[in-house]
Amino acid sequence: xxxxxxxxxxxxxxxxxxxxxxxxxxxxxxxxxxxxxxxxxxxxxxxxxxxxxxxxxxxxxxxxxxxxxxxxxxxxxxxxxxxxxxxxxxxxxxxxxxxxxxxxxxxxxxxxxxxxxxxxxxxxxxxxxxxxxxxxxxxxxxxx
Length: 144
Fold this sequence. Notes:
Elements: H1 11-34, H2 37-41, E1 44-51, E2 62-64, H3 66-76, E3 80-85, E4 89-92, E5 98-109, E6 115-127, E7 130-137
Parallel strand pairs: 1-7
Antiparallel strand pairs: 1-2, 3-5, 4-5, 5-6, 6-7
C-alpha cells in the first residue's frame, strides 16, 4: 500500500511526518502483539484524549488522560489475543500534526476461541512526538 500525502508541505516535512506516523503505528502494533502496556503508553501524552466514536452502549466512548487509558488497557487484557497487524496505510493531514491510519488487526477472541478480524481507521493527532488525541474507529459488531 502506498501512503497518501498532502499538498502544501515541503518534501522534507512530508518525509518526516510520514516516518513519524509510520514509526508510531509500528510501535502501536508491536505493543499490542506482545501485550506491552508500558510500550503502548509510551506513545501517548499525559493528557491524551482517546475516543471510541462507534463504541456501543456500556463501553467507554472517551478516555481522558494516560491513567484512564492505562486502566482501560488493563481491563481489556485477556479478551483478544492479537496475532497480526497489517502494515498501516498512512494518510497525512496538511497540518503535520494529524494523520489517519488504516490497518487490520487479526487474532482470537480468548473466551470463545473464535477468530477476530477488525479493520481500523484511526485519526491521530500528535505534539512533540506524543499522541495527544486518538480517535479509534472500529466496528463493535466484530466482537459478536
